[in-house]
Amino acid sequence: MLAGVTVPGATLELKSVTRRFGPVTAVDRIELAIEQNEFFALLGPSGSGKTTLLRIIAGLERPDEGQVEIAGRDVTDLPPYGRHVGMVFQNFLLFPHKTVAENIVFPLRMQNLPRARRDEQLAWVMGLLRLQGLEARYPNELSGGQQQRVALARGLISRPALLLLDEPLANLDRELRSEMEVEIRRYQKELGIPFIYVTHNQEEALTMSDRIAVMRNGRFEQIGAKTEIYTNPASAFVATFVGHANRIDGRIMEIDGALARMSWNGGALLVPRPAGAAIGDKVRYFIKHEDLEIVPAAVNGVAANDVNEIRGLLRDIIFKGQTANYIVAVPDGGDLVVSDTPRTVGVHPNQQVIVRWPAGAGACFTDEAP
Amino acid sequence: MTAPRARAGVATVSMSMGLAAIYVFLYAPILYVIYTSFAADIVWPFPPSFTLSGYADLFSSSLYGEALANSLTLASGSAALSTVLAAAGAIGVLRYRSRRRGLVLFLFIAPLFVADLLIGISILAFNARVLGLPGNLFSAMAANAVQGTSFGFLIILAQLVRYNWDMDDAAMVFGARPWRCFWEITLPTIWPSLLGAYLISFILAFNNLEISFYNLGAIPTLPSVAWGSLRFGLGPELFALAALVNFFVFAIFAIMYGLMRTGLVKFGYRGR
Amino acid sequence: MSGLGPLSSFKRNPALRFAALVGPGAAFIVVSLLLPLLSIVVFSFWRTESYELHADWNLDNYRTLLGEAAYRIFFLRSLVTALIVTVVCVVCGWPVAYFIARHGGRYRLLLVLALAAPFFTGAILRITALQGLLGPIGLINMALGMVGLGPVEALMYTQLASGLALVYLFIPFMVTAIYLSLVNFNFELLEVAKINGARPWRAFIEITWPLNWLGTAIGMILVFIPCLANALTPRFLGGPDATSFGMSLAQQFGETGTWALGSAMGVAMFGASLLVILCLKPTIRLKRSGFTGAMTP
Predict the structure, then answer these.
(1) Domain B62-221 has what CATH class?
(2) Which of A77, A84, A111 is the best substitution to test chain C (most C C-beta atoms within 10 A)?
(3) Between residues 4 and 33 of chain C, which touch chain A (CB distance below 8 Å)?
(4) So what CATH class is C59-120+170-289?
(5) Can you name the residues that pair with C121 across neighbouring β-strands?
(6) Nearest beta carbon to residue C40 from set B98, B122, B207
(7) How many CB atoms neighbour CB C136 within 10 A?
(8) Quick check: ipTM above 0.90?
(9) Is B249 helix (H, G, I), strand (E, B) or coil?
(10) Which pLDDT value is given to residue C196?
């Protein structure tokens, strides 16, 4: 397997990959194809199986069923040291007894590359990740951010077919994380190597990736471009997990084409028609914070037909800098959170307000799955 | 965990006195032996007049010379065997889940609970009657290795529990096959415990009497020669031998202590 | 990467790797410890004739052991001595281990190593050193002789001397075992006890002792077993009537060459040790000793 040779077509293919641990199915018949030059995020809560899936791709776990193909080659039974992938771990896992240079160059030594080539690649990758000058240091002498970059360098030096990242930013502080999010995406685009990025943090996934798979209980709840996942969640789970949304439970009263009228707590809302819903079904409705608008209740006018409106009392304003969260207490309901820019909104706490948004916005699902 | 400041309560004072007493108890004979080894009159070495005749006797004795050579061979062979078996066992037990783990642990620790004498005679009887082998240096090496493996196992285990096995995963992903991984990653990290296991097994085998005695036939080792000599009463060369062995053992412990203290090596010690 | 055929799936199987690693050591111990022990059980039912073991199955050896007064006395003597020495080691060793663990501070390691080191100089040389101090021509008696006091009878060639020597030999083991337990003991629990009204001694009995019982028990076993088998100290420091069971056992494999009887004695000794371990085992409840178990990979 030559370093740096790109293969056309799918770089990674998973066919019906399954892995069980006793009675628990950690990975359940997963199908996936990753293209060259793709930044792919595996997003899910802990226990969803995303790390197990990553380890299967790396070769650290063997699937009970299914196949793993990297660059067209069936690697299902191949041990990790035969697969030519790179990996970056959550707690870095740098070798404490080796210098930075020795750590980074390790994969090339394992491939028995001649010295000259090794030094070449080392210089290149250290330049790429701005690690010059740190060659002789030991991992415990580096900051968290530096350690992470060394781990990245180690993963990239052999120009692998894939780079696997297992929540690499989880141990960094917030500022560093934001910086690294942008940097990591930049590396992926520059090098053209597909990255598979596992995280439970939706912001990371949305910032860095091209495509996202939302994973739950070993299955992909939804897989698609990140904008698609964000604006059109395919299930209640995805709607809660990605983006920040308000949830309103209600019942379908009427169905009218693509829309439906949902009754709730003494009011009615126009919602997108949930798949497979019949009149009388209980449903859950999600509308994102930023899709809502908030105005003082004194504004006159009758609600138009294409606008949903809810009246309530503004309890609190949580200022976040560019935006603010307005917490509105709804009669007989809970709280609605509206995210808006404080400069354009003129409301004060303890004021009667109206929350409104276009009819048919948001996502609605029947109340069957847990 | 920090110990609270010691207040000089009655209990503390009496305990510290007890501690001092124990040290006196343990070291008085040793110090006496070292002192007397240089003394002209070993029965009543006062007033002090010094001589090295005891050491001269010791070094010129061909019996002791032969015994020393045998003891060194026995100890180094036994310790090497012990360390390898113990290291493999400790790595296996900690790295891989297995339903047999408890049984294996039991097996590796069991020798500690069998008396030296019993190990010695049972191996003698087994070798002679079942295997038909006469006693020789190799059977004694193996016999000592039984105990050495147990001690070594515990020593290596103590450091190995803190080893992060995920690093092996990382090494594997980057292309290291299992043996390379051990050589590049695991060994450089755990070598102090292997050294400690070797040293302890060495010392135990070197000074062992009852396991070796029955399995060596006529082959002399330092402890067995000392035992034979002691039966006829104390002699100056015995004091010299005791002084030398004490020095040797304490030197090794001092080195180990120094290494642990300066943080160079850990032996599983959480340096404080 | 080439060369990854069927062998690779062998190598990747964790169960096989486990077996390959622990196998040699485990097999070695089975062959070098368990089988020999098993064999002397077998031999104990055989007969010795002209220095050879004959597979003549009988119970004579055991009848001898139980019947002849000498052996019964030897056994009881060794048993009682071992028990007393163990108790003495616990009583003397606990304060030492406690002091080092609690108040040792930076010197803890040094103190413990200094305590453990003498053990490694070997039993015979340590007994030599003891003889030098305690024996009839040893320092103490000679010193007393100079001042006109007679030699202390009790210190030479008595069972007391033999027992004292055993404490000398094995107290490092006891202290180390208790110390290793105390090192993982959270002394702050004693503060809690104090706040709740416990006096120091009460706190010790209720808190310190039970939570370190595992270490104490291990120390007791590590002291008792060699003491029971002890053949050296009575020979060199004990008197003519201090013959121990271990000494007699050694003779069966040395001078008299009666291996069958010796095997029976070995079985008896091992049985007694096993009995002590079995008696102690139910008193050890790992979960309640705060033992978190170091092995959780």
Answers:
(1) mainly alpha
(2) A77
(3) 4, 8-9, 11-12
(4) mainly alpha
(5) none
(6) B122
(7) 14
(8) no
(9) helix
(10) 80
